[in-house]
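Justification of resources, computational component.

The compute hours requested in this renewal are based largely on the per-chain cost of generating structure records like the one below. Each record pairs the submitted sequence with a full structure-token output. That output is archived, and it is also reused by downstream analysis tasks.
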Amino acid sequence: MKLLPWQLQQWKQLYDYKKQSRVPQALLINGTKGIGKLNLAEQFAFSLLCVHPSSNGLNCGNCKSCMLLKAESHPDLIKIYPEEPGKIITIGQIRHLLNQLNLKPQFNNYRVVIIHPAEQLNNSANNAFLKFLEEPTERTILILVSNDYSNIPATIISRCQKITLTKPDKDTTIGWLRSQNPKLSVTNAEIIQQINQGSPFKSLDFDKNQMIFLRKECFDDWTQVSKQLQNPSVIAEKWQKIEGLQLLEWIASWIIDVVKCKHQINTTSLNNPDFEKQLVDTAQKIKLPEAFKVYDLILISKERIVTQLNKQSILEEILIGWHRINQIIN
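The structure output for this chain reads:
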């Protein structure tokens, strides 16, 4: 595991805790999604569990502990995630964790628990977890990883040492993306990082899954609907196979860019610079109050689309709204 280039300052802070034998029993690593918070948490866990860490504090990769960590079988590293993506972390999971923590660590170093994302703990789980934070067991380090700690109870936050990660600058993200894929051009790397609002890992997944082509196809569909050249119901059915939240994020960014173009904001600030010509053209024809209505519907739909509601119906409602406001104007 490598330390990410934009996390050097935070790593120094963590390593200083270890060097000074002041490792906090509870850490909260916070920041927006896709910037490598979990990577930093795991890096620190590996360092704490390694028998022979290197001079910069990183784990050696060769000792018995490191071998177990590589095999994901180290008994003193416990990871708690939702049982299904997007679901809560349950009281049952925390009770099971607390039973494990009643036992002493199996090795001579620390025992590390990583909970991610911490804001997914439900109320009962939070209450049970708080009791442990008030009376932590020997040599146990808790690392909470959060995309939004405003949803974590203040009673838990107050017992944690907080470390906040921020997005790297544009050049750092582009350089890192191209180090992961040397075939990626500077132009495409720039577009991808801008589409994903500077999030390195979202950008990396976007590139690996070649999402730039799917996004272009969806934008063409969206444009066809606005020009009255395609039926919203047909496009909604076509889009069923695409991950819902990803689609809604794309559509929201297109509308935001249309608003920017309508206000003649510098187009270098567009989220979708490769679609500039089409966005400017749409902005000239659209009425902003109507566009905002569709945007508000998208925000509501972000919550609905992860439920059991019919995904095709949700997408169809948005597309019909977009079709209708363009129909009025045309």
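The longest strand covers residues 140-146. The two ends are 55 Å apart (CA to CA).
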